[in-house]
Structure formats: structure tokens, C-alpha cells
Amino acid sequence: MGYDADVIVIGAGLAGLVAVAELVEAGRRVVLVDQEPEASLGGQAHWSFGGLFLVDSPEQRRLGVRDSRELALADWFATAGFDRDEDRWPRRWAEAYVDFAAGEKRSWLRAHGIKIFPVVGWAERGAADGAGPGNSVPRFHITWGTGPGVLAPFVRRLREGVARGLVETRFRHRVTGLGRTAGVVDTVTGEVLVPSSAPRGTASSREAAGTFELRAQAVVITSGGIGGNAELVRANWPERLGAPPERLLTGVPAHVDGLMLGVAERAGARLINRDRMWHYTEGITNWDPIWPGHGIRVLPGPSSLWLDPAGRRLPAGHVPGADTLGALEHITRAGHAHTWFVLNRRVIEKEFALSGSEQNPDLTGKHVLEVLGRIRAGVPGPVRAFLDRGADFVVARDVEELAAGMNRVAGDEAIDAAELRRTIEARDREITDPAGSDPQALTIRHARGFRGERLARVVPPHALLDPKAGPLIAARLSVLTRKTLGGLETDLSSRVLTAGGEPLPGVYAAGEAAGFGGGGVHGYRSLEGTFLGGCLFSGRSAGRAAAGAV
């Protein structure tokens, strides 16, 4: 029996598209398989904010940010916390990725027509004293065009490959098995699903209309993680984090179901670090949902007051926008169903960014004047829509009205207005004291030492109860599922490994399916801007390695 292609790529997200681009560049014939309709081409990357981790970039240097490969690698290892035997390959992938981010990544992106917004953000902030996890300096570079802008050149390369007769796309093909010939995985089998006109991101039918079998010399798995599958998220939830919340918002479409990981495992692949996941603590219910349980992540500045369900301030060290995993562990181990940000108009105008391409139409649409408008006073339109229509928001003239609104949203009487006032006043005293040693106050002052943060992201220290900065605002926050940090174990050539440590013949993996490289390049925590970049880097590696092997 002959081959249908040189390589079969399973999964039409960013990592799969990059792998296809590399294979086409090498003149290889490719079949691209995906269970979703063509409308969802690009997968999760389409919905992303477009953040990219770069080191010692011209954008950083123009803003006075001093960065280096050595500092970034130290931050990565301090944040990842590698502590297992199976972290052997993730460690090596981490070193390779930081080298890429500090080296050719930016020029490689520019060669593909991808441009970077000039203001560098500071996601997953490190502590002001330099201790603990997180980025020591701002490294979050936003793509001009957000997620769709990252995808565009690789979608174009796919179309060119189709036009040249090198690529065949098989949408609505759901893989259920991998088969071998003479010990080499060369067969992909599964179900042909009924045609679907489901718009991008919405659930499509799983009704099967038939079966398929495809054969190639190599198979590249780029099928994503488990973030859209609440059952798998709960099944893999680690004991160290306590019990998962009863209410989980979902940050990715339902097709991010993780089922292909099980198919690969049954074929002999080793799946490692499955208990390492990256879920956000700052999820808000989307007032205009696209998929079931759709939540949006708030990208917070450091000034909001963070409270538990009873209105108590979270322990010192839990500052908005820093140590996501540490905050998640505190919240879930304490059994909190939700937390609160308390802020005011002045803070929300500058510090309340929303993640996602659809929540940032100015950047996604490349509208220069609208982007410049962010620097001016006023609540951004997408944020205003949540204030007006979001189920998790309260806007109030005074503390008593705020407390009543918070209780109404939560459906209980947990917030006492007098105690809430005392908590806000205590925060305000610390934040406005130039010599204050409160960790949040130190974080705010440290952040404002960077030009980009001072210009576009962090407001001057002030009292939340300052009437000139009102009204008061509360936002209920829920845990939001997002990324799988573990995955199929791979070597630096993206070859999938077996339990014995040897390559599974014919099989490669990239993107979230491979834990973005090695089966867990991030360890326990991400520095952010590393998920799209991980898809780019590992997809490129897998495509080049597969092309060289066939």
C-alpha cells in the first residue's frame, strides 16, 4: 500500500501550521488533519492577545529595559521549578527556547511579516525584591494584529502549499488511532465527522459519517491540550492545589479536548507532567460568550485590592499580575469559590486589560489612532461593555453600595460594609505612604520605574476612596482554565519518546500537545508570552525534523 503523503500533521492550530510551512519549504507532501471545520483554522491562537516573550529586544532597549539571555534563563528556571527526573528534556527545551527568544526569534518573525507593538508589557511580574518566580523585567511583546496577526503568514503559507499541490487539508477528520508497519507509526485512522457550518470557536457536531485511513512516512501531532475538557482538567488536577473549584470558567473552545493525547499514549508515546496546568485566577464571565462557560482573563495592573469571598485581603505577596500559580494554590486550597478585585475608575482605565483578540479590536485591526487613544483618560470600549453588561461587575458611589452589590452578585451576605471600608482604608494608607513596605506598594513603585509601565499600564499610587478617582468598582473573579503545561515527551528534534526513552518511530509532536516542547518546557509556571512562542519554536522544530527524516 502506498503513502498518501510524506507527512501527516494532526491539528490545524498554530504549531501545526508552522510545521506545515516548514514541510512545504522543504518540498514535502503533507496532509493536514483536523476535527473542526475550516472556519476554526488556527485554533486557539486566533483568540489570543498575541503576546510574545522576547529577550533584550530593540523595543525593550528603547524603553530603557535592561535584559539579557542570562537573566531570562535565570528567571525561567526560578519560575519553572524543575524538580523531577522527567524534567530532563523540558530543561533542555527551556535553554533552547530562551536562546531562540534572545537570538533569532525577532528577526525570524519579521521575515514572516510579523510586527511588534512598541510598548513592552510586564506579564507575570517578578517580586520587587527579585526573589521568587516571575519576570525580573518587562518581556511581554504584543503582536501588531494580536493572535490573527501571528497566524496570518502561516495560513498564507498553507494556502500556497495547497495551490502548489503539496498540501491537502482534511477538515472534519477526527483521529482515533495510530498504526504501525514494520514497527514504524505510518498510519492514521479515525472518523469522518458530518459537515459543519459552526462558526469559529463554537461547538461542532461529533456525529460520524464514516471512517478514514491515511498513511505517511511520518506523523506530527499538534492537537493541543485539555483546557476545554473540564472532565480531564479535574481528573488531572494536582492534590498540591487542593480541590478544583466547583465553578470553572473555560478559556478555550470545547474542541481543545485533549483526546489525541490519549490516542498517542495508547500507541506507545510517553505523556509526562500531566498534573502541570496553567489556569488563571482572574477569569470573568463573558457577557457575549462564544463557547460554553466562556470566560475572559483580566490582565491586571498591580493596583487593585484583592479580596477573598468574605472581603478579607489576600495574604501579603499575592499581588495582581504576579505569581499566578501561587495565587491559584492559595485560592483553591482555601476553598474559595471566587475572589474580588476592588478598584476605581482611575485604575480600570489603565490597569484592566482584557486578554483575547476579540477584546482588543484596536490592536487586532491595527487601528493606530484607536491604540493611541488608550493613553488618554477613559475606560476602553471592551472594558466598558463588561461594566455595563457583565454579570461579575459592581459599580458604586460609596462603600456601602459596593458591599451590597458584591453580595447581590455572589448571592450571599458575606461582605460586611464596615469591614470592607476598614480594609480599603488600610490598603490606601499603605499605598499612599512613600515609605510604606507593603508588598503591593513596593510592586507599584517598582513597576512605575519602567517607562512603558508608567506611560500605559500602572497608575500613580493613590487612595481607592479618593472621590476624584471614583466611582468604586468590584469585579468577581473565578478560576479560568487555559493551558496544559505537560504533554508528550519529546527530544530536541521533536521526536516523541516512549516510556523507555527511545523515539517512537515516525512520530513527532509540537505545541501544547508536547507541553510546548519536551513534555513540559514551562515546568510548573509560565513567564507568559511563551505559549504562542512555544508553538512557533516547537512547530518549526517538528516540521524541520520530519522533513529531514522523509
Automatic annotation (TrEMBL):
Domain FAD-dependent oxidoreductase 2 FAD-binding as annotated: residue spans: 6-532
Pfam families: FAD_binding_2
Keyword Membrane: no
Top-level division of the source organism's lineage: Bacteria
InterPro entries: FAD-dep_OxRdtase_2_FAD-bd (IPR003953), FAD/NAD-bd_sf (IPR036188), KsdD_DH (IPR014614), Succ_DH/fumarate_Rdtase_cat_sf (IPR027477)
Alphabetically ordered keywords of this record: Flavoprotein, Oxidoreductase
Record PANTHER family: 3-KETOSTEROID-DELTA-1-DEHYDROGENASE, KSDD-LIKE STEROID DEHYDROGENASE RV0785
Name the UniProt record assigns to this protein: FAD-binding dehydrogenase
